[in-house]
Write a structure and sequence with these properties.
With 157 residues, this protein is α+β, with helices and mostly antiparallel strands. It has a single domain, classed as Histidine kinase-like ATPase, C-terminal domain (Heat Shock Protein 90), CATH 3.30.565.10. It is built from 4 helices and 5 strands, in the order E-H-H-E-E-H-H-E-E. Helix 1 packs antiparallel against helix 2 and helix 2 runs antiparallel to helix 4.
């Protein structure tokens, strides 16, 4: 069993430049938490995708609100939670995101982007799910929370 590490909490204005800083901090905290070197690229990419998605949502809907990130290492896991205030239940009629949620429903008029019919933010969630074995996405009244975790310390071997 790993020794619990204090949570590192950050909030930043929704600017793309801050995503790089968040990726660097997340990678450093993951390494300190004992995440295997072979998983650090996944951590960096997943955190970058989650933060980029949140920045895009904030810039469109609430540019004055910060994106929030919490990084915690304990009990053999390193966990990152990215929360945005732009995505609320009001936006999706109360449905959770994902393939069965309202947020993932194709836009009949959409023809732009890499996959016609997919919303860019939902495509980002699919990328995150492909990078992280343990990911939980929850839409609440306060926004969208993406919780990702990786084995660390004794569990990483």
């Amino acid at each position: 069993m790993s020794t619990p590490m204090a949570t590192v909490e950050m909030s930043f204005t929704p600017l793309p430049a801050h995503v790089r800083t968040t990726r660097l901090v997340a990678t450093a905290v993951a390494r300190r938490s004992g995440v295997a070197e072979t998983l650090l690229d996944e951590v960096r990419l997943a955190v970058g995708e989650a933060c980029s998605r949140a920045v895009e949502a904030h810039r469109e809907r609430c540019p004055d609100q910060p994106v929030r990130v919490a990084l915690t290492g304990s009990d053999g896991r390193f966990e990152v939670v990215v929360t945005d205030a732009a995505s609320t239940l009001r936006d999706t009629g109360g449905q959770p995101p994902g393939p069965s949620g309202a947020g993932a429903q194709p836009d009949p008029g959409a023809s732009e982007g890499p996959l016609p019919g997919f919303l860019p933010s939902e495509l980002g969630l699919a990328v995150i799910a492909g990078l992280v074995d343990d990911v939980r996405i929850a839409r609440t009244e306060s926004g969208l929370s993406i919780r990702m975790s990786w084995p660390s310390g004794d569990a990483a071997g």
